[in-house]
Task: structure prediction
Amino acid sequence: MVPLLDFLALPLLTAAALLLLSLVAGLFSARLGFSFLLVFLVAGMLLGEDGPGGVPFEDFRLAFWVGNVALAVILLDGGLRTRYTTFRTGLRPSLALATLGVVISAALTGVGAWLLLGLDWPRALLLGAIVGSTDAAAVFSLLQTSGVRLRERVASTLEIESGLNDPMAVFLTLALIGVATLPGAAAPDVGWAALQALGQQFGWGLALGGGLGWALADALRLLARLTRPGSGVRALLVLSAGLAVFALTTWIGGSGFLAVYVFGLVLGNRARGSVTPALQAMDGYAWMAQASMFLLLGLLVTPTEALRMLLPALGVAAVLMLVARPVAVWVCLWPFRFPAREVTFIAWVGLRGAVPIVLAVFPVMAGVEGAKTFFHVAFVVVLASLLLQGSTLPWAARKTGVALPDRDDAAAARRVYGDFEVPADTPMAALCRFYGWPPVADEQLSVGAWFVRSSRHPPVEGDQLRWGPAELSVRRLQDGAIVRIGIRLDDTGEAEGDGGAT
Result:
């Protein structure tokens, strides 16, 4: 019995102690501004064969399985917490970033990989596709723990993009694996098959995610009335249903990632009262999924091998963060007329997390030549992103002016909105006459209606317009409508015609 108990107790003791220490260290790292997830990744490396733990681990199949399940749980939790109102300002730009943006980012990063790593074009573009998408786990985690309240348009764009771009990244990765492993003559056939697969993945993902989410919302409301399950049971019901949707969609050739996110989105909005009690437990499941995934991926990495290609890998990370992501964001957001400060912030916080490392397992399992190179480069890119972009998120938000003041911080609110505020139904013409501002073309407009008409996008809290020597800002919204307008007066402003956004 003793050896059997040792077999049970020692691995459990090691895993539990490692998780406990990582959680405690993660709490302190978050206070210092570093990503909570970075600690789990480093802990896995320390446990591995190059660290003090000395545990040899090369089970890519297990890492692939755990990584996919963990991402499904994280996306489900993110979908459950996303309100339909978020799509008012974030859906269209997020779709552009999650599709065209991933393609542009992957292509430009592939060029950098071709120059820095000496890869042929199919493999260089494959590496670009692996690291080309932002990561839901990293984005959701940092937005929750950073303590920064972002403008609604910025926060919703980042959250929805990270929830929707995984299908495109998976599609590009699988398509380019096919190109890299088949003769050149077969590449056009692979491309056509990949396009068909893309339509199939998005079609099944949207259909099953939305349809099953709609059906389960009704079933969950009925079950809650009949049996009144506790919050823990509700969370298990939602979790098991979400994983079933993910598995079913993946099995029939659809995008399980898209399906589970849409499933959570529909379920969380249609059965809000039934789902809300389960959210606290779901948060715990999501954190456990993130911790397990990053610990296992850190254990899978061999740091000495990654160090041998550190400089070119850092070069690829620099191309991705400083060239590919900014170009993709500017191209995709240009039609939506985002203010330059918001575009700059979104470009900088295109965080990479576990998704690139999970995608880097695909070519290893497919037997692509030099696949270990992709894995270690992806690991360096993720570390660089979490260290540089993740740790500077609060600073970048304040520097670019996309951070909103805390609702109970009156001094900070005055700095952002000005010293005066008026109801949104105040006549704009009356304000112009009282303060000596340039007259407006339509004297029947209220200041709120004038702001909406002058804005180039749906207004959100913190939006600003300059009119003559005054800066007007949205101070409060209710159900998407402006309620209060803040006014800052100075002597430096110049009239800007129709009141362009600043």
About this structure: Strands lie at 149-150, 403-404, 420-423, 464-467, 470-478, 481-489.
